[in-house]
Design brief:
Nucleotidyltransferase, domain 5, Rossmann fold, 9-stranded mixed sheet, elongated, 7-stranded mixed sheet, alpha/beta
């Protein structure tokens, strides 16, 4: 028995920048002068290129696995195949993600004797129309020319009905009784009867389009016997769904690239923080040389930024029904060291601290620097990643993504003096212009041995001066945050066309809250972080020059 991690995923011919593909024809990508230089200096390479141009198209018709081109985006997945258990491919439209997954399955069927392979799609019809068609196209002609069915194999296929009985049985490798099985299933089957996957084992499972979270979790155990692999391919049109959130929250970006079209860095490869052995790959539409991506750009040129990112780059940006549709991690989240006042200590800002004493939970706090243009820079949060995630992806009984309490919500047992010391320790020599607090909690009566007081008075004993934020309606605060996020994302970003709210990449909990919060339930675990931002937005927080400093009451300037 062979294990999946013992078999290389390498197949095909690496695509070269010295090639081009125009209107269905493979051509040289070299100019006449470049071709002469190569012929003079690299004759062997020139000869190989000429043979490729002459022979590859016809050979690919006979064997797409051996003679088909391997794109650089494919190669990244292949190179990490043996190391990682789960490979998630977020791809733009026509980015070749389904072609790659289908060819990979056919490749594994030939490399692993008696392999057990599975492919899931949303419905049976989608499986037939999409995945099964691509798999049929990937099968070498020598198999297609065989008798369609026998005691040892089944290669019966029609475009209308797909593969007979929803499976392919490849001819056995010499010395083995049977060939590899590739079976096709769909998510609808699982939702109707979860027992269909009980007892399933597989060397590789392909998931086309986003699958239900509990199916993904269940399938992880189904590849254990063979040290198997899961490959998931989809375009993230619904944004940060429950599954996407669990994959991407806190993910480490190991490779990124600048998009000239969008004018920003976007991820190429990430490592999931929540799923061990899970690597996330991004297939860009423009990296597929076999279709004209310029036409696709034209089609989406007037669409909002999040549509362009999903459709052209596979990058999810927002949650369905999210309260902050304009919050985009690839726009509003910045490297800490790139914040102007961090990069240049001479950059003038006014600093604020906002906190929400959350009952038995730790206090939630953010620090905001406002520059002379009125732009907000949230540069610190507590509890932060060193304490733990505040909220984890979770849906309630009604299917609403409300999250659940993470380790960051565990009580820390701090008193007023402890919090005062924490603030001073984090801030060091920073000048905090004003500190704001939840208006209800700040004014609430607290009984002490010396009588009744309130939290603001208690904190004043330790030289921390808090002012209750305006107690305005929640929706008003949400609107004020959206005002800060507003900009014309159809036009290029510039100094005059940009959001007024940016968040340091270190503020994981706030970032997660901004992508997840829907306001649909009081149960939402990340509401505390939205609250502290909301208190600041309704105050509001402004840049204050040295000539404008005034008393704020209770120990401010």
């Amino acid at each position: 028995m062979k294990y999946a991690d013992e078999v290389g995923a390498q197949f095909g011919i690496p695509w070269s920048s010295e090639l081009s593909y125009e209107r269905g024809a493979l051509k040289s990508g070299l100019s006449a002068d470049e071709a002469k230089v190569m012929l003079a200096n690299q004759p062997e390479k020139a000869e190989f290129l000429m043979e490729l141009l002459d022979n590859q198209p016809a050979q690919e018709e006979l064997d797409p696995i051996q003679w088909g081109f391997t794109l650089p985006s494919w190669q990244r997945v292949m190179d990490r195949w043996e190391k990682d258990k789960v490979h998630v491919i977020f791809g733009g439209n026509r980015s070749s993600k389904t072609t790659f997954a289908s060819r990979l399955l056919v490749h594994l069927a030939q490399q692993i004797p008696e392999a057990e392979l599975r492919s899931f799609h949303v419905t049976e019809d989608r499986s037939i129309e999409d995945t099964q068609k691509f798999v049929w196209d990937a099968i070498p002609k020598r198999f297609k020319d065989m008798k369609k069915r026998s005691d040892t194999h089944s290669l019966s296929y029609t475009h209308k009905n797909g593969f007979t009985d929803g499976k392919v049985i490849f001819p056995p490798v010499e010395g083995y009784k049977r060939g590899s099985y590739l079976r096709f299933n769909n998510y609808r089957q699982f939702l109707q009867d979860s027992q269909i996957i009980e007892g399933m084992t597989a060397h590789c499972i392909h998931l086309e389009e986003e699958c239900p979270s509990r199916l993904f979790e269940t399938l992880l155990a189904r590849v254990a016997d063979y040290h198997g692999r899961i490959i998931m391919t989809f375009t993230t049109l619904q944004g940060w769904t429950d599954l996407v959130s669990s994959l991407l929250r806190g993910a480490e970006t190991v490779e990124s690239r600048y998009s000239d079209y969008l004018g920003m860095d976007l991820p190429i490869e990430q490592v999931s923080a929540n799923w061990e052995g899970c690597r996330i790959h991004y297939f860009w539409s423009e990296d597929n040389p076999f279709f004209d991506s310029k036409e696709l750009r034209k089609a989406y040129s007037k669409q909002p930024l999040e549509v362009k990112q999903a459709r052209l780059y596979g990058v999810p940006t927002k949650v369905f029904m999210n309260k902050f549709p304009k919050f985009n991690p690839h726009v509003n989240v910045v490297k800490h060291e790139d914040m102007p006042f961090i990069r240049d200590s001479e950059e003038k800002v006014t600093r604020y601290m906002v906190c929400d004493p959350a009952g038995s939970k730790p206090w939630v706090m953010i620090w905001v620097a406002v520059d002379q243009d009125g732009v907000w820079w949230v540069y610190r949060e507590w509890p932060d990643s060193t304490v733990g995630a505040w909220a984890l992806p979770h849906a309630n009984a009604k299917g609403k993504p409300v999250g659940k309490a993470g380790p960051g919500q565990r009580p820390v047992g701090y008193g007023y003096e402890d919090y005062a010391d924490l603030m001073k320790d984090l801030e060091q020599d920073e000048e905090i212009f004003e500190r704001l607090v939840d208006p209800r909690f700040g004014k609430a009566t607290v009984r002490t041995a010396h009588g009744e007081t309130n939290m603001c008075n208690e904190m004043m004993e330790f030289d921390v001066f808090l002012r209750p934020a305006p107690g305005l309606e929640i929706e008003h605060g949400i609107q004020k945050i959206n005002d800060l996020l507003s900009w014309n994302d159809v036009e290029p970003k510039s100094h005059d066309n940009r959001p007024s709210l940016y968040v340091s990449e270190r503020c994981d909990n706030l970032i997660y809250a901004m992508t997840e919060y829907s306001g649909s339930s009081r149960e939402e675990a990340c509401k505390d972080w939205v609250d502290v931002l909301r208190y600041g937005a309704v105050t509001p927080l402004d840049y204050v020059s040295s000539g404008q400093l005034a008393a704020t009451g209770g120990g401010g300037y």
